[in-house]
Each structure stands twice: as C-alpha cells, then as structure tokens.
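Re: the request from the purification team.
They wanted to know what the chain is likely to look like in 3D before they choose a buffer screen. I agreed to run a prediction and write the result into the notebook, where they can find it.
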Amino acid sequence: MLTMEKKSPAQDMPTHKEVGRMLYNAAHRFHEKTGIEFDLLLSQANLIWLRAPESYDPSKGTKFTTWLTYLLNWELTNYTVAERKKHTQLEYEENFQKPQSKMEELSEDGDLALRIALSAPNWANDGRRRSKALTWMKERLQDLGWGADRISESFTEIREALQ
C-alpha cells in the first residue's frame, strides 16, 4: 500500500525559476487583457511575491504556489482597476476635442461618454472591431461606477446628437 508523505513547508517552496515563470506569465496575461505596460505589471508582480510569505499559512493545506497564484490574480486585478481609474479621467480631459454640432447640448454623462469614445485606443477606431471598442468603452465607464442603464442612456444621447 502506498502512503503519501507530507511535505514540510520548506520542501513545498518553488524554485526561483518556477516563481520567475509564474510572475512573468501573470504580468503578461494582465498586459494582454488590460494594455497596461508589461514592465509595470511585472514590477507589481515582484512586489506581490515579496509580500506573499507574510500572508501564506501552510496549516491551511495549500501549496505556496497555489497561494501565490491566487494572490497574483487578486492583487494584479486590484492594481489594474486602480490604474484605470487613476488614468481614465486624465486621459479623457487631455485627449478630448468635441466635434461641433448638437454636441454642445450633451448632458454631463453624455459628455463624459463622448470623451471616452474619442480617447479610445487606435485599434478601437477600426470598423471591424466595433464590438471590442464598445466593450472597451463600457469597461471604462464601469470603472467609474456607472451601471448598464446609465451607459445605455449616454450612448443613446450621443447617437441622437450625431444624427
């Protein structure tokens, strides 16, 4: 009969190569999802790794790598949301130039939604990626705490002003 020997916490620690691969993969994955600079995400991942042993509890029965994976996902998600919020308002104000027409009469919500639309990345202006661009704009508005109804009303207001 085979018996499983329990590993000590020291035996459960990953090698530097494994940790490096985990950090790189997490930073790359978040860079691909969010567009935030890879180097910033990798630096943040390294900081998370340095703090991970403080909160790791081997008595809970999880491996350190499992805990690190969870922590990286949680902390990098929080970091990317905070970065979006921090830069969103600044980007809209810096990049905003309102087209002349009925746009002068837009409400505050419509005005902000228009700023977001005008500050979309270059790939969003490609007509073949319209749904991706709309998703990107909705995510920016959700980052600011907007609900689905508020987003829909603002897009409708902009569409009517453009006609």
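For the purification team: The first helix runs from residue 16 to 34.
Please add any questions underneath this entry.
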